[in-house]
Amino acid sequence: MGQETKKLSDEYEITGILGRGGFSVVRRGIRRTSSGENENENNDVAIKTLKRIGPTTPLGKTTAATSMGFPTRKQVSISDALLTNEILVMRKIVENVSPHPNVVDLYDVCEDQTGVHLVLELCSGGELFDRIVAQARYAEVEAASVVRQIAQGLVAIHQSDIVHRDLKPENCLFLNQTKNSPLKIMDFGLSSVEGYTDPVVGLFGSIDYVSPEALSQDRITTKSDMWSLGVILYILLCGYPPFIAQSNRQKQQMIMAGDFSFNEKTWKSITSSAKQLISSLLAVDPHRRPSALELLNHPWVNGDSAKEDPMD
Ligand code: ADP
Ligand code: MG
């Protein structure tokens, strides 16, 4: 981890834009190296800049708050709370999880008047979202590989008491362009660390993936991520989401009632093992959902029920 005062432009050359979010811009960059040093090393990075929007806290204060824990809600605007939160979670990941094949790595943090720059491992294979759109439906063995990789990442972060809270195909990136590229969980902007006060209470991720307990403002736990993974698996296998409604209000009611079905023609050709797995992940009662570790031991996920899988 670099010094807090490190200047971004001294250390990295920005080469393009990778994506944009509500409070952030993500750019591609190359680490400047002193002559002859690590010539063969991969110096490509992604730089996520979290902008300060609300009343800014003094630079040093944010840094101190970051290393000690969450500042109190009164001291910061929502944008600053999110910013502080993401850095705190990423630091915890660096301490407890990295390097992990299924979790994006944080290399460095730089800070200036614009905000905070998280220097991240570059994942140049695009979002899982784009591959789903391009492919429409996944074969079961391919879907199992995606679920296995996300579950492996979740095991690691859940063991560190981190709940992702915004797990969706837009927040899973492939490391490279190959078909068998590793898949990485990223965007810990809305994540929470169990045991800390949650500065983003009431805010949750995309409605399509959000759990019933998040909607009803109940306690959000690692099992809430398992619900989101259930939604992802459903979409992978049929190409459309489990909860479709005319209005968000109606969709919320369906989610809270666990009101989904497999009654379309599409699901006829899908194994009962896959359907049972989805039903267990989309259980309204979080206690009835498998943990990430339990999921990895499920035959449909670990490949025991798909020995014909050429990738395994
Ligand atoms: P936000 O919190 O604003 O949603 P994200 O962290 O999800 O921001 O990043 C926004 C987009 O930028 C991502 O969906 C992805 O397309 C791109 N991106 C983010 N991190 C990386 C990375 N490490 N490598 C490549 N692209 C990235
Ligand atoms: Mg995102």
TrEMBL record:
Q: Which GO terms describe its molecular function?
A: ATP binding; calcium ion binding; calcium/calmodulin-dependent protein kinase activity; calmodulin binding
What catalytic reaction does the record list? L-threonyl-[protein] + ATP = O-phospho-L-threonyl-[protein] + ADP + H(+); L-seryl-[protein] + ATP = O-phospho-L-seryl-[protein] + ADP + H(+)
Q: Where does ATP bind?
A: 48
The Protein kinase domain covers 12-301
Keyword line = ATP-binding, Calcium, Calmodulin-binding, Kinase, Metal-binding, Nucleotide-binding, Phosphoprotein, Repeat, Serine/threonine-protein kinase, Transferase
- Return the similarity comment: Belongs to the protein kinase superfamily. CAMK Ser/Thr protein kinase family. CaMK subfamily.
Q: What is this protein called?
A: Uncharacterized protein
Q: What is the lineage of its organism?
A: Eukaryota, Viridiplantae, Streptophyta, Embryophyta, Tracheophyta
Full-sequence range covered = 1 to 312 of 507
